[in-house]
Amino acid sequence: xxNYFIDTHSHIDMIDDIDIETIxxxxxxxxxxKIIIPSADESSFEPVLEICAKYDNVFCMLGVFPQEAKxxxxxxxxxxxxxxxxxxxxxxxxEIGLDYYWDxxxxxLQKEIFIKQIEIANELELPFAVHDREAHxxxxxxxxxxxxxxxxxxxxxxxxxxxxxxxxxAGFYLALGGVIxxxxxxxxxxxxVDIPLERLMLETDAPYLTPVPHRGKTNEPKYIPLIxxxxxxxxxxxxxxxxxxxxxxxxxxxxx
Length: 256
Ligand code: NI
Hints:
single chain; binds nickel (II) ion; alpha/beta; globular; eight-stranded parallel beta sheet
């Protein structure tokens, strides 16, 4: 079968200057055949599920983003659990994690909400996608302490090769995106060469982090091949090999 790509982390619900039909058809024209939308907070669950219901090849994750931790309420956990049980398009919990870059005034709350969502993923037997910004140690420690059996994907991996190796040893998957194409992304390029292909996935994190040569434009799933090509060049392998293995990894973890 012909190789194709999966965009494992794409906020296509947040792209407001291109219509959804165009986003999905141009993705397909560029070999990006499946898309997973992470959610940011409860208010995005419904719009995200609506997109999934309309398109066979679009899936989603439910979760509350660390910087939105204050929006967590008594009903959020049940809401996530019920929606996920009701809907086979919900393939993971995300994006969840820790963000010490923006506002660090409520890191204890961020940790608490992260732990709750790891436990939800475990209960639902779903994988979870992690946002870790300048919080490598706490993120790693909480996952290894609380996760009981869910597959873990560190999205937009931004750590060193040393940290990547530690994560691989712990059994995590890593996703790389458009930043890999930036000239100054030395650390990430080293990670892309070092980690086993069996643990790598691709993502755009659209509408953010548009790859070279389209920086300044809205990011879309259709740019995944640029990311794959950069990784292929760095590793000295074919783009087909990157497509095949990363797609296999995503299909296995998310059961899509
Ligand atoms: Ni994201």
